[in-house]
Fold these 2 entries.
Entry 1:
Amino acid sequence: MSSKRVKIMELKNNEDVRGYSYGLPSEVFSFLAEVRDVHVASILPSKVRGNHYHINRREIIVVIYFDKWLFAWDDGEGTLVNFIEYQGIGSVCIEIESLVSHAIKNTGNKPVQIISVCNTPYEPSETIKRALINDS
């Protein structure tokens, strides 16, 4: 499921005896035009990251998961909230336009790994809270 302002792509696992291996499709680099910030984080069970939008920043989030998790987004202020839940083992790449609120909740029992890649340097005043998922 995707929308006009969010694109979700399941990534192919090129796993071998060493472990998993996911590559990004080349079109994600044209979406960003340039990489100015990379952030790596985990989300522990029942915790949420996000619940915000960026004023001018485009973002790609790569999610690597080993259980269940939920992604929520809107297409801008006043629009419906979309939800998609994943389970099992895998990875997805999510392209997020500016002004789109987004959040990830770990609904499973194992940590979820995320890598966020953005087209502008991090600036706290450019990130605005707009909650989509209850974080309790």
Entry 2:
Amino acid sequence: MRHGHEGFLEIFSTVNEGFEDVVYAPEDFKDLDGQVLVRARRTGRGTANGAAVEEVQFHVFDFEGATVVRFRSFLSEEKALEAITPSA
């Protein structure tokens, strides 16, 4: 588990090793009562062979007030929605 701004940046640095020109483009946002589900498209190129990479990811941001307190990433919307905590 990583913490803080540095931890957040470390996650993306790690998952994007071996790629260049990586772009995350948010496509949809769903407000789920203290949590936000973001559908994002990741594009880039492999550094070894220049092959184009494109995938859709689903990011869950948990908020306390205006502060993000947890971030999770999934490759399917179904898995992301399973991770959403229902409001009390």
